[in-house]
Design goal:
- The chain is an alpha/beta fold.
- The chain has a single domain, classed as Glycoside hydrolase/deacetylase (TIM Barrel), CATH 3.20.20.370.
- Helix content is 35%, strand content 15%.
- The chain has helices at 2-21, 44-50, 90-95, 116-120, 147-156, 172-181, 213-224, 245-258, 273-279, 297-314, 325-337, 355-359, 366-369, and strands at residues 98-101, 104-107, 134-143, 162-165, 186-192, 232-237, 261-264, 284-286, 289-290, 316-322, 343-345.
- Strands 3, 4, 5, 6, 7, 8, 9, 10 and 11 form a 9-stranded parallel sheet that branches.
- Helix 10 (297-314) links the parallel strand 9 and strand 10 (316-322).
């Protein structure tokens, strides 16, 4: 036992002495020696790329001429393009009709003074060139939410029928472009507060009375940025809002600055839209008759005959109809059979004028506004 302990002590002391005296941290590990050169090895490809080229022998490169910043493609409907300050100014003015913002593309006046109302309006005769014939305009509302029904209206109705899009569809820009390509004049529906709000809610981003003007303008910009190419706006509901000049005034001022029109849906006799439009030089018109209050074919045809009678007696009349299948089909049949010898179907823009002009027109008299 003594010898074993002595041997273990000797072995331990030997190992400790080896570790302390021999500097070999990698002892026991595989070792390989590799020659390393500190000079850079020649690389023909790198040397060729890094060398200065002989510019005298380089072939010239032909670059296309620079182009201006991209802009929206503006389509003018009808046979006559909108007037501009000059032929050279027209393309730039048309491309300048859109302001790109965080809310989307907003319409605006071009640098040459061209307004979206003028640029996007369908060419048509107006009251001054009607030659004694009554002018009838029909606007179809509530489009854009149901793409299939909207496509049916675009394809079925004649181009003189104005189409109004709600701001909540998922494919509004493509549907709006399709409508304009088919010859239709288009408008944007703006949800406004009714008297029984929120029990009767027009939809998201509704403009509300008693809200700060900045809040309503922010909502308006969101609504206006849903698609491009519209001539103006039409209210969806809004009996309370359109009666409040303090709330409605900033909205109408914004439309005047941007060059858009306003179409009053004719459902509220308390609306101050006409007065505000006149103060802000906004092209204005008012719906005379809702054609499908009773959504049946016979009732709609009877309302259309009434609309024609008003147009003959007053010189012009505007009707509105919702995007119901029966309404679209009935309007299409009526429009195909209309006799333009005494009544002419025109877009809404043809009957939109300044407040001073419309106040002189019996079709928009206070007496007519008082009718249900």
């Amino acid at each position: 036992m003594r010898m074993g302990l002595a041997l273990s002590l000797v072995i331990g002391v030997g190992i400790a002495a080896w570790v302390a005296l021999v500097d070999d941290p990698d002892g026991g590990r595989p070792v390989a020696e590799v020659a390393v050169s500190t000079g850079a090895a020649p690389n023909p490809l790198a040397q060729d790329v890094a060398s200065d080229p002989d510019l005298s022998e380089a072939e010239p490169i032909d670059l296309p001429p620079p182009t201006g910043p991209g802009g929206p493609s503006i389509i003018t409907l009808g046979d006559t393009p909108p007037a501009a300050s000059g032929a050279d100014d027209a393309p730039g003015a048309m491309a300048d009709l859109v302001e790109m913002t965080a809310e989307g593309p907003l319409p605006r006046r071009s640098a040459s003074g061209l307004t979206p109302f003028e640029a996007y309006a369908r060419p048509s005769i107006g009251p001054d060139s009607a030659a004694g014939r009554g002018l009838v305009a029909v606007v179809v509302t509530g489009l854009g939410i149901n793409p299939e029904r909207t496509g049916e209206a675009i394809d079925t109705l004649p181009g003189a029928i104005t189409l109004s899009f709600a701001p909540y569809g998922s494919a509004l820009q493509s549907l709006a472009a399709r409508a304009r390509a088919a010859g239709h004049e288009i408008m944007l529906e703006v949800p406004l507060e009714p008297f029984d709000y929120p029990q009767n809610d027009p939809g998201p981003h509704t403009l509300l009375a008693d809200q700060p003007p900045r809040e309503n303008l922010d909502r308006l910009h969101w609504l206006m940025g849903r698609f491009e190419g519209y001539t103006g706006l039409i209210n969806h509901m809004g009996a309370r809002f359109t009666a409040a000049a303090a709330d409605f005034g900033p909205v109408m001022e914004e439309l005047g600055l941007r060059g858009l029109s306003w179409l009053d849906d004719g459902t509220s006799n308390r609306s101050v839209a006409r007065q505000l439009a006149g103060q802000n030089e906004v092209p204005f018109a008012r719906v005379d008759l809702v054609l499908d209050a009773n959504p049946s074919r016979d009732a709609i045809l009877a309302a259309l005959r009434d609309l024609e009678t008003r147009a003959r007696a007053q010189g012009q009349a505007i009707g509105s109809v919702s995007a119901l299948p029966v309404s679209i089909q009935t309007i299409a049949q009526w429009a195909a059979a209309i006799d333009d010898t005494d009544v002419v179907l025109v877009p809404v823009s043809a009957l939109s004028g300044t407040s001073r002009e419309t106040s002189m027109n019996p079709a928009l008299s206070p007496e007519m506004e008082a009718q249900p």
